[in-house]
Specification:
Radius of gyration: 17 Å
Keywords: Methyltransferase, Transferase
Distance between the termini: 36 Å
Order of helices and strands: HHHEHEHEHEHEHEEHEEEEEE
Structural class: alpha/beta
Shape: globular
InterPro entries: Methyltransf_25, SAM-dependent_MTases_sf
Strand order of the largest sheet: 3-2-1-4-5-13-8
GO molecular function: methyltransferase activity
Pfam families: Methyltransf_25
Protein name: Methyltransferase domain-containing protein
Oligomer: single chain
Length: 255
């Protein structure tokens, strides 16, 4: 099964829907709003003058938001449609940015540049079958003492919905619509994998990255069905009356 071709087609189609959605609010971004959430702003901190690589950047809103804060940014994504839209947005917003269409695992061959920061966020890792290869990509892209900042959806909510938590070589293959409010109802085939947090951390350590912090958050900045209004302007999912972790972050330094 060519999961790359399947997922590229899915994200090419999703991009054409997403750029027109209020969920992403492209017009608001072009008027000066940031797409970055408080979690990543606080976790990453000041970026002015630093080189920042955004892996799996979709159509570049977060990448360009970092550029507005003074970072020298490079965004990479599998979807050629997403990269085309990202380049268009950069031009419309008058922001300097580089965007590269590439599979994550091939990125180091396409771009040998080294970065101060590698940024990965929200729903990125499930599209990758091998976290060791992902972590190697991150490590090779970082300068000595460069930082990886991962802000990712916590797998606990998927566990409550019946998903298997522990990693399996067999992917989940499904057909579904997209998550924005303007979903047309059209379904696309997608291939994803479940990754325990321990696999994420161990892959980074194995690649030569020292873990500096690991945090869990009892809320998400994004709403999904069943969530309720929670702290920090986000949304919570309650289990037996208690908030479950919905987001986690990992910060590491290249040795």
């Amino acid at each position: 099964m060519d999961y790359l071709a399947i997922n590229k087609e899915a994200w090419d189609k999703r991009t054409t829907v997403h750029v027109k959605s209020s969920y992403y609010d492209v017009n608001g971004f072009l008027q000066g709003k940031t797409s970055l959430k408080n979690i990543e702003l606080e976790e990453v901190g000041p970026v002015e003058g630093k080189s920042l690589l955004h892996l799996q950047c979709h159509f570049g809103l977060d990448t360009l938001s970092w550029a507005r804060l003074g970072a020298k940014v490079t965004g990479v994504d599998l979807s050629s449609e997403a990269i085309s839209q990202a380049k268009l947005l950069a031009k419309q917003a008058n922001l300097e940015a580089s965007f590269i269409c590439s599979d994550v695992y091939q990125f180091n061959e396409v771009c040998p540049e080294k970065f101060d920061i590698v940024f990965v966020s929200y729903g990125a890792l499930c599209w990758l079958p091998d976290l060791n290869l992902w972590a190697e990509t991150v490590s090779k892209a970082l300068k000595p003492s460069g930082k990886i900042h991962l802000i990712e959806f916590h797998p606990f909510d998927e566990l409550l919905l019946g998903a298997a938590y522990f990693a399996s070589d067999e992917p989940l293959v499904e057909e579904d619509g997209t998550y924005t409010e303007n979903c047309t109802g059209d379904k696309v085939k997608m291939v994803t994998w479940m990754h325990p947090i321990s696999d994420v951390i161990n892959a980074l350590v194995k690649s030569g990255i020292s873990i500096e912090s690991f945090n869990e958050y009892p809320y998400s900045p994004y709403y999904l069905e069943g969530f309720v209004a929670g702290e920090s302007g986000g949304y919570q999912l309650l289990h037996k009356g208690n908030a479950i972790p919905l987001v986690y972050s990992v910060k590491g330094k290249k040795l």
